[in-house]
Design a protein that fits this description.
The protein has ten helices and 13 strands. By secondary structure, the chain is α/β, with parallel strands linked by helices. It has a single domain, classed as Metallo-dependent phosphatases (Purple Acid Phosphatase, chain A, domain 2), CATH 3.60.21. It has a six-stranded mixed beta sheet, covered by helices on one side. The structure holds fe (ii) ion (2 copies).
């Protein structure tokens, strides 16, 4: 199987010309399966247009949501358009319309390989303990001049209608991933998460605001779920815009994001080529 992976293509920020480059590069690699590990866009229209463009160059497109894909303006919360609604209703509908396989909605098996996946969520397990930021900062997402915008736009209400703390969201989505693994019968499995499952994949920088945001990048429990099943041979993640390709225990941990145009200092074509990785399974 020729699997091509990418993530964090942020088409509403990067623009349609980058999408055209991306589709062209993917087409060159003639994938059997394209895996998109989240952060496509926030606008549903752009998400759908992107899905259609990617489906035109790959016979199967497997997708998990990114945090940006479940963002909604706070004015929409009163209408019930919160992050659960985006994850469990809007994005599955867009996937169905475009012929994309939505791994958040359930696993699938292709040519004897099982695919499981989830947006996942951070639970502060990748917090930089040496920073000394107060607990209140992690609750508000504000510290050292940094404002983590999920706290405004990615609201997951609990049964009482109040926003759930991030660790509660993370536990629900980790449980969904574990349930998917338990239901798959294939002997080989690819796991896809938007959130970073392994601390080794994190990007280290010295700025206090950056160190603060490390808490909102990863969830070690996702990695524990993936590593608990020896059938998982490949784990594809997004969210961090740092590329990495590591061996962790018995599996290959791949992170192949595009990121924002302002983050790359090469041509658009070179950035796109670096963010699209072919894996032969
Ligand atoms: Fe991203
Ligand atoms: Fe993200």
């Amino acid at each position: 199987m020729r699997l091509v992976a990418t993530s964090d293509i942020h088409i509403d920020k990067n623009g349609p010309d980058v999408l055209a480059l991306l589709a062209g590069r993917i087409a060159e690699l003639t994938p059997d399966v394209l895996v998109v590990a989240g952060d496509v866009a926030t606008s549903p229209t752009v998400i759908l247009q992107t899905f259609l463009s990617l489906r035109a160059v790959a016979p199967r497109v497997l997708y998990v949501a990114g945090n940006h894909d479940v963002w909604g303006h706070p004015t929409l919360l009163a209408e019930g358009q919160h992050a659960w609604w985006r994850l469990d209703h809007l994005l599955p509908a867009l996937c169905a319309e475009a012929g994309v396989d939505n791994l958040d909605a359930g696993p699938l098996e292709l040519d004897g390989i099982g695919f499981v996946g989830t947006l996942g969520w951070y639970d502060l397990s990748t917090k930089d303990e040496g920073l000394g930021a107060p607990d209140a900062a992690y609750a508000t997402g504000e510290y050292a001049g940094m404002k983590w915008m999920d706290h405004v736009y990615a609201v997951f209400p609990g049964a009482d209608g109040q926003p759930l703390p991030c660790a509660s969201v993370a536990a629900v989505l980790r449980g969904r991933l574990a349930a998917q693994l338990a239901s798959v019968t294939a002997s080989r499995i690819v796991g896809v998460t938007h959130m970073v499952p392994f601390a080794e994949q994190l990007q280290q920088k010295d700025h206090p605001g950056w160190r603060f945001c490390q808490a909102f990048i990863g969830h070690r429990g996702l990695g524990e779920v993936l590593r608990s099943d020896p059938r998982v041979e490949l784990a594809i993640a997004g969210h961090t815009h740092r590329r990495s390709d590591l061996r962790i225990g018995g599996l290959r941990a791949l992170c192949t994001p595009l990121g924002y145009r302002r983050e790359w200092n090469v041509s658009d074509a070179a950035a796109v080529a670096a963010a699209v990785t072919l894996v032969e399974l």
